[in-house]
Amino acid sequence: MAWYPLERWEHLQPFGLEALAMDQKGYRRGSFQSSTSDEDMLEIAGASLDFSMADDDPPLEREMGGFTSYNGGGMNGASKMMDFLEEPLPGVGTYEDFNTIDWVREKSRDRDRHREITSKSKESTWALIHSVSDAFSGWLLMLFVGLLAGSLAGLIDISAHWMTDLKEGVCLAGFWFNHEHCCWKSNTTFTDRDKCPEWMSWSQLIIGHGEGAFAYILNYFMYVIWALLFSLLAVLLVKGFAPYACGSGIPEIKTILSGFIIRGYLGKWTLIIKTITLVLAVSSGLSLGKEGPLVHVACCCGNILCHLFTKYRKNEAKRREVLSAAAAAGVSVAFGAPIGGVLFSLEEVSYYFPLKTLWRSFFAALVAAFTLRSINPFGNSRLVLFYVEFHMPWHLLELVPFILLGIFGGLWGAFFIRSNIAWCRRRKTTKLGKYPVLEVFVVTAITAILAFPNEYTRMSTSELISELFNDCGILDSSKLCEYVNDFNSTKGDDLPDRAAGPGVYTAMWQLALALIMKVFITIFTFGMKVPSGLFIPSMAVGAIAGRLLGVAMEQLAFYHHDWIIFSGWCSQGADCITPGLYAMVGAAACLGGVTRMTVSLVVIMFELTGGLEYIVPLMAAAMTSKWVADAIGREGIYDAHIRLNGYPFLEAKEEFSHKTLAMDVMRPRRNDPPLTVITQDSMTVEDIETIINETTYSGYPVVVSRESQRLVGFVLRRDLIISIENARKKQDGIVSTSIIYFTDHSPPLPPSSPSMLKLRSILDLSPFTVTDQTPMEIVVDIFRKLGLRQCLVTHNGKLLGIITKKDVLKHIAQLANQDPDSILFN
Fold this sequence. Notes:
Elements: H1 6-12, H2 18-25, H3 103-120, H4 125-166, E1 169-171, H5 179-182, E2 199-201, H6 202-207, H7 213-241, H8 250-257, H9 268-283, H10 291-306, H11 310-313, H12 316-335, H13 338-349, H14 355-375, H15 399-429, H16 436-451, H17 455-458, H18 461-469, H19 502-525, H20 535-559, H21 564-567, H22 579-595, H23 599-609, H24 615-632, H25 637-645, H26 662-665, E3 678-679, E4 683-684, H27 685-694, E5 699-703, E6 711-716, H28 717-730, E7 739-741, E8 757-758, E9 769-771, H29 776-786, E10 790-795, E11 798-804, H30 805-815
Parallel strand pairs: 3-5, 7-8, 9-10
Antiparallel strand pairs: 1-2, 4-7, 5-6, 10-11
Helix pairs in contact: 4-9, 4-10, 4-12, 4-14, 7-9, 7-16, 8-25, 9-10, 10-12, 12-13, 12-14, 13-14, 13-23, 15-19, 15-20, 15-22, 15-24, 15-25, 16-19, 18-20, 19-20, 20-22, 22-23, 22-24, 23-24
């Protein structure tokens, strides 16, 4: 086990005390020893005896044997003794949907498997080859994940680019060409490169000309119709085939990586539908991005490819290491930022991130970026549409406007989170949530009708960001670059600061209107039943604000270069201010305000722009936006959505500072019925089946006797059901009056009694226990760092109660004056 500095434990490890715990717990190979239970001991909604799994994500241990033995025997030893140790019991040791995995048991199981392979590798050449292939399988899996994620990202980029242009016209040379590719072979001049004869707008195609009011109305109408068609197709596909394909996916992936199981969320149908509908949603012109959903797509690839390798298929903790690396690959292809992807996985989504996962994430991100670069979806040999390069250095005094942009980003981030969560809560609690198709239709119609008249909202958001980041050159024909030119003072490629022409002023008010529209429409768009990322709309808001401030600073420096703030470094005719840099800093500030990322955000931004010398402005803006947003509300958008949906996610970054004890949180409470327990050798099959049918708990403590309440171990409801069913089918003489015992030796009974059933091997003999006087801050730390699902509470060695992960979450919510009943899976 790699040792980390103490301050990194909480962020990196749900196993802070892992090695020590393993030694104390005395794990034995082949026995089912774990601290297992659902995070919610009280309820599994609709629990039944049917454990068939969704085909997306088969149970991990279908082929696992050696967990349960049924040894019946009376006192005289003449009764039939049957041993099913050699037979596999499908389902034992696996998890139900919406349960939390047991990290400690999964890690122990993987160590046992590894130990076995290592010991066998010295016996034969074939075993040695198997050992080497097992060690290499992780890297091979990362290669496959990177290749698949990169290929799908390239496909999504190319398709979205073409379908976005389809709203405005079609290429006569081949309908499959987008506008840019259509005009590549045209003989038009550089300034008229967008008006080539091969590309025809819908009005030119239908009525033969593109000028005049009727042509404008026709183009307007076609734009809205295509937008509605794309978005309706997206929402109908999501609703009909894969409900999990909606939204960003990052809140759910954070929850899954913390150990929660949502079957089908990373399955093949979700992958197929999310890939198709992501293209449709982005092309419809809605205020959303593809970056967040690409992380979900990459994690789906990782989960599906895990089934190729037994090591990852059979172990949920190992699978989560792969998903952490897949998330890095997703960000790598979304932004063309491999290092940023690894840091994003570490800072934002991963719960457990050992050094080995860091290296594998790095490799997966590298392969994914290389694959996307080979596909070259934008035709510019870059991994992203908005790659830019700035040449001018920034001045120390410019830190003031950069920090102002950081403050704006923090304020906007906090405003957006509050507004979006309020709207999403309204969607959940009112009739609005019952009409997802109508909601998407209305929001798309409003977006398309408002977007078309303004050229900065009509273009795709990625193109808008590209335009805003761009540093004006001599050949730029954009309105943002329509300055009053004085070519006598030009030095090389760098144009001096110039007076703004009419085009710049037009662009400014159009951008101001675009900013207002983006700020409000994104609130209603994020969270709809279509794939929707938040990175690009957030960056667009910041980039617009930054460009407006950048142009204002540029004009101020041009007209007042003799002011004291400019006189030292900005002489007349010099190129002092780069408005594109302000747009980039603004984009980073707003994205930081919404997501609360810092390190990964700065790295993603400088990988995007290739500008190493702009790290300090980016850091200043990102840090300021985080401070400002944190002062208004502690949660980032993903954490807020986790809380809104009631996912059982125990945040590792939050401090628990209250002086409560384990006895204040445990159940049963003072007026509750006593804790449901099973005795080790005095209950019949019928008694235990009655307990199972009358309660919905996911596990039961096993005690010596009801009088003594001395703890023996813990047994899972699911394992009891499967074991008893299996014994009734396969073991003769097991009837309702048969005694079930969890001890090594059968209890003394009269010779005439029916066969007994031995279930010791499904008993966890080393459940985690704390005393009733243990401070809750220690209990919370144990839950976080060991990834527990429950721990038992004792007093003077006697069992008192139980604390589950959900109890901890409810207690934290209560202390924060929130509704504790919101911690339910919705």
